[in-house]
Amino acid sequence: MAPKDAGTYLEVNLRQAVTEFSPLQSEINKLIKSSGPMPVWRYMELCLLHPEHGYYVSRDPLGREGDFTTAPEVSQMFGELLGLWAASVWKAIGSPPMLRLIELGPGRGTMMADALRALRVLPPLYQALSVHLVEINPVLREKQRATLSGVRSISWHDSIDEVPEGPAVIFANEYFDVLPIHQAVKRETGWHERVVNLDANGRLVFGASAEPIPRFEVLLPPLVRAAPVGAVFEWRPDSEIMKIATRVRDQDGAALIIDYGHMRSDAGDTFQAIARHSFADPLKNPGQADVTAHVDFQALTRAAEDLGARVHGPATQGDFLKRLGIETRAVTLMGKTTPEVSADISGALKRLTDSGRGGMGSMFKVMAITEPHLTSVAGLSDEQAPGPSTP
Ligand SMILES: C[S@@+](CC[C@H](N)C(=O)[O-])C[C@H]1O[C@@H](n2cnc3c(N)ncnc32)[C@H](O)[C@@H]1O
Asked: Which UniProt keywords apply (predicted)?
């Protein structure tokens, strides 16, 4: 074939490939062509929060028909127990006449609805509550409005900074994993920022910055310094955890963080995409899949303790929920229903607490942050938690 024909053939193929890209990928390609490869954190941020095509800007991703199912969507028991946990914190800080119940990234509002139902059995606390939802997704905000329509005092915020002062219980379930991460990859020359670049066909590929990150090694956890060439280390900026820790340290209360992740900081690439309940390539179809990374609980602990807040845990989700009495709650619910629903409750209990395949029990971790004088919190200390007493 003459070179001219070959060129035309290639051009047509390339044009076809380009038109197959998602709208967000076309934008990302343009950005890379004009400004060069982008760091992984910027790519993740665009995938999730691009004002027009970002994954969390335009859809409800939860549930069987969506991309993933979270613990509150598995069973009402999860939110109910968290409600009782909030009650135990309220008592431990002297039952203040006003308590802000804050949820970061509240999804469909299911967990808050279940927690509030459990809290109705404590009228003095229920009357003291104001609910604050920090949510950027307009589609999910609408769902939350519908789910929580009867709640007396409720408001929405773009950021925790906007929530008025006062003692608070802050919940963050599967919130930290969607906050963008940085990645660095180890080369012979040092640690380089991991970037997203274009290959010759206009497809997204991973690469590394030309120059190593200056003095990066000294900032690394000891375990990671000895990592072999090729290893990946990832981290999140501390800004969100610092805001939470500062708030509970200065204004009383506690935060409860639940997410999948690891107890110890270590090397490893956990950047992943999830679509239709399966893992997907995070560089394919940006904006169409949830992109997440595991949460480093040791890094969260360090950041909170550096500010003088007290950290409790982390524990596995299975241990935490069992200490809060999930098994007793399941038996109570099963005693009141049909054999079919009873089997569903038993399945949900397993899913939330088991460590085996499909179980969330050990993959998910739970940690609390409180003001420094609160020496123990339910489910994360040795003492017994308040047993569930919801009807
Ligand atoms: C994985 S979902 C978890 C939802 C809910 N917590 C649950 O367990 O069902 C992440 C939630 O965080 C919200 N979100 C993502 N990025 C956010 C941001 N930067 N600020 C506030 N909310 C955010 C999403 O819209 C969604 O509600």
From this structure: Methyltransferase, Transferase
CA distance linking residue 12 with residue 27, whole number of Å: 20
pLDDT of amino acid 327: 98
Q: Is the dihedral of CA 319, 325, 326, 331 positive or negative?
A: positive
Domains of the chain: 1-382 (3.40.50.12710)
Q: Are 232 and 267 in contact (CB under 8 A)?
A: yes
How far is residue 25 CA from its own chain's centroid?
24
Alpha helices, H only, 190-338: 222-225, 239-251, 297-306, 317-323, 326-334
Residue 135 CA to ligand 1 centre (angstroms) = 7
- The set of residues, in sequence order, having a beta carbon less than 8 Å from that of 106 and lying 6+ positions away, is 112, 133, 134, 135, 140, 144
Q: What is the CA radius of gyration of the chain?
A: 23
Best CA proximity match to 75, nearest among 336, 335, 327: 327
Q: What is the C-alpha to C-alpha distance for residues 160 and 391, in angstroms, rounded to an integer?
A: 32
How far, in Å, from the CA of 72 to the mean position of ligand 1?
13
DSSP 91: H
SS3 96: coil
The set of protein residues with a Cβ atom below 6 angstroms from ligand 1 is: 56, 62, 70, 72-73, 105-107, 111, 134-137, 140, 173-175, 178
At 138, list the tokens: 């307009």
Q: Which amino acid is at 317?
A: Q
Scanning the structure block, which residue is given the tokens 């003459």? 2
In contact, 181 and 41? CB cutoff 8 Å? yes
**Does residue 199 sit in helix, strand or coil?**
coil
Average pLDDT, consecutive stretches of 10 residues, N- to C-terminus, the chain (391 residues): 34 45 92 97 97 90 84 97 98 97 98 97 96 96 97 97 98 98 97 96 95 93 91 97 98 97 96 89 93 97 98 98 97 94 96 93 97 95 48 36
Name the residue of 58, 137, 159, 241 whose CB sits within 8 Å of the most ligand 1 atoms, as the mutation to test its pocket: 137
Show the beta-strand stretches assigned E in 114-221.
129-134, 154-157, 168-173, 182-187, 190-198, 204-208
For CA atoms 149, 154, 155, 156, the dihedral sign is negative
Count CA atoms within 13 Å of residue 45 on its CB side.
11
